[in-house]
Amino acid sequence: MTVNDAERTHPDDQPADGEPDSRARRVAAARGAARTLHRSPLHVPLAERFSALAAAAPQVVGADDATDIYGDGVVAVLEEEVARLLGKEAAAFFPTGTMAQQVALRCWAGRTGNATVALHPKAHPEVHEAGALSTVSGLRTVHPTDEPRLPTADEVRELPEPFGTLMLELPLRDAGFVLPTWEEFEAVVEAARERDAVVHVDGARLWECTPHFGRSLPEIAGLADTVYVSFYKSLEGLSGAALAGPRTLVEEARVWRHRYGGKLFQQFPAAVSALLGLKHVLPRLPAYVAHARVVAEALREGFTAAGVPWSRVHPERPHTHQFQVWLPYAPDILDEASLGQAEETGTLLFGRWFADGPPGLSVTEVTVTEEGLGWTAGDVREAVAEFVRRLPR
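Above: the chain sequence. Below: its structure as tokens.
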């Protein structure tokens, strides 16, 4: 993908070059929509977000608890909870996932004696971190495959040079939030072990992988030596991430976190919001995944019924509660149709569209969360018909 991670994470909220009012229009349309498949926290006004966090905080922290200082207090509570949920010995809070992942990979490079990381070319460090693995951490990357999926066991075995760490992004977001089968996941981990490599999982969105794998979080995380998880991508937290794994490696990671400038004086707002996400959003994710599959099927049916010359929902059966939609129109045409539908009917079906792949094709990411659970398949098909009515014929 050619756009930056902030744009892909929250496509409704990034101003396009030369369009100073485009963000304001998108946010206004999202706030004003009576019906949407997902309501981003970024669309909530600042004061309302502050008030909601303060009102909910007593659900996860004591009213008289002290604020954290350099990672104690509520931050330590969050770390313990993440380690428990993932079945790991320890976890460390990081202000960003980018930092957590770089630290994990450089720690493993030191322990394995090999600074080469095998990963997918669409993985987050290759696409969204401005070459940080090599520029900042002195690491080198190789690619077992460039197919739009995770590598297979044979591709890992046949990689013609040694590597110290195999990094797997679960799900692989820029390929369409795709996951391997459980058997494929087990096999690729075993192939890495045969190569004397450790396995690190980019689990920014690991929380919603349990329905696809049919396994618990500890079982999934248990196949990897270390796992990074995000608190804002799926759990609706303010920010932050955690690195979980062996206690000795996590302690080493804390040292590198300080060196990278990630030992912040106070982080309690992010930690509280993360605990609230674990308490309230995490249990809802399987329902979101199940309904995303209903929505995806209805979208396909809707585009077919509306006579769109070509469309694709990818994956056909979503692996998580997020997936891609592809249409043969320019992004500005699709953006205008999306915004016009929201402004005129109060229904926001799609977020921002991007040019990608062959000329003339555009892609958007669909996320189904609490708001989307109220949509029936018929509601989705009707919304598609209204959306297509705004496209050129």
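Residues 285-305 form the longest helix (21 residues).
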